[in-house]
Amino acid sequence: MFKSTYSVIVTTVLLTCSFLSKDISVFSQDQEYEMSVSAPVYMVNSGEDYYAVCQLAGFDTLYIVSELRVKWFHNTKQATTLCLLEDILSYKYECSVDASQNKNFSFILTVTDVEKSDEGNLTCELSKQIKVNGTRVRDEIMDVKSVSFKVRDFIKDMIFKFDQNKQENLTLSSSSAPRLIVVNPGNYTPSCKVIGSTPVAEVKIIMGDTQLQGSLLYMENEQGIEFVANEIEFEAGTDTTLACSSIVPGLPKSERERTFNVLVVEKLDPKFICTNESAVLKNKRHKVTCKVYNVKRITCTKIAWQRGYDGESRGSGNYEDINIECKKINNSMIETTMEILKVTSDDFRIPYYVVYSYAKRFQITIPQEHVNAAVNIWDSSMFFIALLHTTLSIILL
Questions:
Q1: Residue 380 covered by a domain
Q2: For the whole model, what pTM was predicted?
Q3: Which of 186, 317, 320, 385 is the most exposed place for a label (fewest CB within 10 A)?
Q4: pLDDT for 86-122, tens place per residue?
């Protein structure tokens, strides 16, 4: 990267001018010249330096200093005049001049420690000094050329869908751990969209160890890209991973990935019959028994109980708060019992689910029995019986 100050060009000009004789020819404004602006790269990362070169060919040193003005602009802000930095901008820019070739000058502007807000244009403006009686009165622009640059930026979001017809999707706000999704056998079309990166990210979907084939859709207004895989058949009994992987080219640590763990189960239509008596708050125990049927080769290993829609699925066994049992009635029916060891108010508020093979669930809401009401009914009955007994006694007397 070029390191320089205004002293470089000043020293060059002074040394050159001190040896010039009076008969040196000075180019006129109509003299042919060439001007170009270039940069070695278009993209730069935050924290790096970026530079552009304004090259003038056809002018000698004396003419440039006495007759011309070469200014650098960063977007709409003037940064230099003949590589003299504006004082307030000296922390942000560096400028140097390469005059190693005869009548060929390169003015090099460096933007240091680039930020996202710096991206835009670096513009070199060449103007001719208009003088009256040897005094400069104004500048007349001869040529303006620019070069643009971008600062690489991370992906703002990712939307990974297992299939267009399923609501299930993963985003960057989702956990990076694989998300379990249970589906029936069939053909599906996974897609993955990444948004907001500079430049547009590269994106692919990998199934197991195989990169899927598909098509890319570019979205200019969202500065994003979507990869849509060709239709894939998922067979019953398979368990595989499906990952969306993306990266911003040239930007370190920009890799992003979200993964589905796809479990393909047979299409099932189990039926549920549950006995669900009312429970009493703070009672020690309460049981709910369900019969699950209408499934060939039904098995207790595929039965689970779940508290709340997103709660932990639990198979047969004894736990801290519940016990779960299951027994096989015949080849197409099983009976499972969930026993709450101590009833709390949450048991009436949060529903329970009995789940078969991860895919089919049956909701159970436990009704609450109010003890006080039962006691009142009992007391009223006792009062009526006592009253009847007294009345009968009086009549018999």
A1: yes
A2: 0.61
A3: 320
A4: 666 678 899 999 988 888 889 999 999 999 999 999 9
CA distance 97 to 15: 15
88 and 178 inside one domain: no
Cα–Cα distance for residue pair 9/98, rounded to 1 Å: 8
- pLDDT at 337 > cutoff 60: yes
Query: Within this chain, do residues 291 and 310 fall inside the same structural domain, yes or no?
Result: yes
Q: Tell me, yes or no, whether 88 and 115 share the same domain.
A: yes
81 Cβ contact list (under 8 Å, min separation 6) = 69, 70, 71
| Contact status, residue 14 vs residue 101, Cβ threshold 8 Å | no
Q: Cα–Cα distance between 188 and 114 in angstroms, integer?
A: 44
We report the CATH number of the domain holding residue 349 as 2.60.40.10
Residue where one domain finishes, among candidates 241, 264, 287: 264
Same domain, 70 and 116: yes
With a CB cutoff of 8 Å and minimum separation 6, the contacts of 104 are 55, 56, 57
Asked if residue 1 is part of any domain, the answer here is no
Residue among 182, 335, 327 at smallest CA distance from 268: 182
Residues 10 and 135 in one domain: yes
Least confident of 179-183, 262-266, 303-307: 262-266
Q: How far apart are CA 24 and CA 63, in angstroms?
A: 10
Facing residues of 121 across strands? 148
Q: How far apart are CA 155 and CA 3, in angstroms?
A: 33
How far apart CA 146 and CA 50 sit, in angstroms, is 14
- 253 with 384, same domain? no
Q: Provide CB contacts within 8 A for 152, sequence distance 6+.
A: 43, 44, 45, 46, 197, 198, 199, 248, 250, 251, 254
Instruction: Assess contact for 189 and 163: CB atoms under 8 A.
Output: yes
Find all residues with CB under 8 Å of 100, minimum gap 6, and list them. Answer: none
**What proportion of the chain, given as a percentage, has pLDDT over 90?**
54
**How many domains does one find in the chain?**
4
Q: How many CB atoms lie within 10 A of CB 143?
A: 16
Give the residue from 198, 231, 264 where a domain finishes: 264
8 Å CB contact between 318 and 303: no
